[in-house]
Amino acid sequence: MAALLTTDRLRLRGWTGDDAEAALAIYGDERVSRWLSPPMAPVRDTAQMRTVLEGWIAGHGDLTPPCGRWAVERVDDDAVVGALVLRRMPPFYEDIEIAWQLAPEHWGHGYAIEAARALARWAFGQSAHELFAVVRPANAKGIAMARRLGMEWVGETDKYYDLHLQVYRLRPTDLAG
User: Fold this and answer.
1) Where are the chain's structural domains?
2) d(CA 16, CA 6)
3) Please, what are the averages of pLDDT over each run of 10 residues along the chain (177 residues)?
4) Which of 48, 49, 130, 174 has its Cβ near the most Cβ atoms within 10 Å?
């Protein structure tokens, strides 16, 4: 599958059914799934993960750019280390969320910030005027990542996903790095 974006170390590409095991290392881990918005229970096994991926793949064609879901793959060994999402958030589906998830074994290598920066730049080049991250208040790693990306804290809300969330905004001029 062709890459959407490539950085020095990473490639952002669409998901395939063959990614089920690597995706399970992300979405099957409670350290990741407990922070997801909208909430998602940890995926139990590879078969369930394959079903989730098939749904994402089938729905990808219905999304208007810049929205989508991508696997984050290391260039040097093709290992899937994480995921990125751009999606319109309820209730009005106007605000675009940028979300990142990495398998815990790949935390601390700068992959999330590298991939998110590249995707944000691409999104701004498409049609996005601003991107939002919504983070649960206790998610210190998510908050730190939003700040490293150059996002500005804009407040707290219950507007999205029926959750109490911290909201961070990124505009093209705010993009760090």
Assistant:
1) 3-174
2) 18
3) 84 96 97 92 94 93 90 98 97 96 97 97 95 97 96 97 96 82
4) 49
d(CA 79, CA 68): 20
Q: Are strands 3-6 and 10-13 parallel, antiparallel or unpaired?
A: antiparallel
Whether domain 3-174 has CATH 3.40.630.30: the reply is: yes
CA distance 41 to 22: 17
Can you tell me the distance from the alpha carbon of 117 to that of 40, in angstroms, rounded to the nearest whole number?
25
| Whole-number Å distance between alpha carbons of 107 and 158 | 29
What pLDDT does 10 receive? 98
> Which spans in 39-139 are helix H?
46-60, 111-126
Answer for the pair 103, 110: CB distance below 8 angstroms, yes or no.
no
Smallest Cα–Cα separation from 41: which of 32, 53, 33? 33
Check: CB of residue 149 under 8 Å from CB of residue 115: no
Kindly report the pTM of this predicted structure. Answer: 0.94
47 C-beta neighbours (distance < 10 Å), count: 10
